[in-house]
Description:
- This protein is α/β, with parallel strands linked by helices.
- The chain has 2 domains: 170 residues, D-Maltodextrin-Binding Protein, domain 2; 163 residues, Periplasmic binding protein-like II (D-Maltodextrin-Binding Protein, domain 2).
- Helix content is 40%, strand content 16%.
- Strands 1, 2, 3, 4, 6, 7, 8, 9 and 11 form a 9-stranded mixed sheet that branches.
- β1, α2 and β2 form a beta-alpha-beta unit.
Amino acid sequence: MKSILRTSLVALCAASLAACGSGSDTRASVRAVGSSTVYPFAKLVAENFARSNPDFTSPIIESTGSGAGIQLFCAGVGADTPDIANASRRMKESEFQACQRNGVTEITEIQVGLDGIAFASAKGGITMNLTPEIVYRALAAKPFGKEQAAKTWRDVDPSLPNQPILVYGPPSTSGTRDALKELILIPGCDSNAEMKALKGNNAQQHEQLCTELRRDGAYVDQGEQDNLIVQKIEGNPNAVGIFGYSYLEENLDKVQGLTMNGVEPTYENIADFDYPGARPLFIYVKNAHLDAIRGLREFVAEWAKSWGRDGPLARIGLVASPEDVAARSAAAAETFTPLDGAELK
């Protein structure tokens, strides 16, 4: 039954592609949408793919944010929907179910590497040793259930500079924001015993108190373009930015990383998961498009050729996955075993 369904979906996709016109350059190519963090890596893979495969049209890569990208990906099967969703966090169980309802029943999950949520300031600007608790207390709308009263970093912790709290960071649609919640804000919130206990008693209230950010101007949602955050903090020595580690490495002449728990955001510290903001990066492939979108298999193979520690992606900031994870990813890029969704949250 499953093979019959898959055949039907492929036929539907092929029919949709034909309806768009086989001569259309915009849909004769692979289309990937999603994470702004994964975007520069996907662009490089696309450029290398185009050079290595002159018979294929260059892939289209769009930076929409992880959440918006997965929503587009899960909208259905056919030429008007993306072939790949790039994500700076794992697909959620609710998103997987949305895919299933819309006929996107076979999805391959591939971890392409690691990244870190870097906290940074301008070169020569404000310096601090942050902790998840400090970040939470500084940015939460209601830290530990109380009204937010901190105006300066020193209000949060006496060891910190007496400078106004001003943080430029990712929007709610970004995978970086989701990872910020999971890796920094919630651990910071749960440093309080009452908040940790609240998780078991009232999960919804716990989620709100631990992850809702203040809206008084101390935290500024800068949109999906991480390079704009770099520009903002470069122009203000007292501002802090939150973005993917690759943007920090790319702009070390302009910005500096801030330590978290005394650990610097470096390649080695992220690879070893010593840095608290380390996170995996993914691409999700729509299996129904594999035989309908020309070049899709080959584009995924280009990813697998690129993500090693000595590969081209490492040179622009991607942190290679551990060897066992990389081996599983390489196998997935070849066999396209569908994700069953059982491990998703």
